[in-house]
């Protein structure tokens, strides 16, 4: 009698024999459940393919932009670091700073251009000058000018006007009024104390003026009273030696 063989093929879905009538047999059902698409909260629904592509492209753009900014900051930091290193390593010459003027030498040259002996302050060590020259002021008045710096970096200017008038003196004093007088080494000086004035007086915080012969002397600046007295005292001999009006300079 011929052998009868049973069909031993199995269902691919449940493992039963295909003859079992399983609904998954012969592809009759889905073996694995598909994961539903993710719902995007902002949209309230799953993204479309176009939206997914656009989102990823935007994320990529932002990443590249942030990376570019970070690279720029890094480059800037490197450049600043290089500049700092250069500044620290390159030697600097202090002589490039404002140099003192040898007003004595300038005065010797200026003397030939003025008809009166020019004042040359004889000051102790620590004083310096930042300017020395002949200038032309109000009404064309020629005057000898020296800018002096005290050891504490306060300022005293010396102006010696030749045949000066009231307009020149008023301009030198910034139109301020005299407050008192003081005698220094026998020379009578007029005092202009503007330290508490609300008026814009420039550098004329304090000033001393006197006239001798054809010369009108003006000392003004920001220094202390003692510094002004020191400068005034240093030119006493010059003030006393001024020739009278019309007399030739010695």
TrEMBL record:
Keywords: Membrane, Transmembrane, Transmembrane helix. Pfam families: DUF4245 (PF14030). InterPro entries: DUF4245. The chain crosses the membrane at residues 71-90. This is DUF4245 domain-containing protein. It comes from Subtercola boreus.
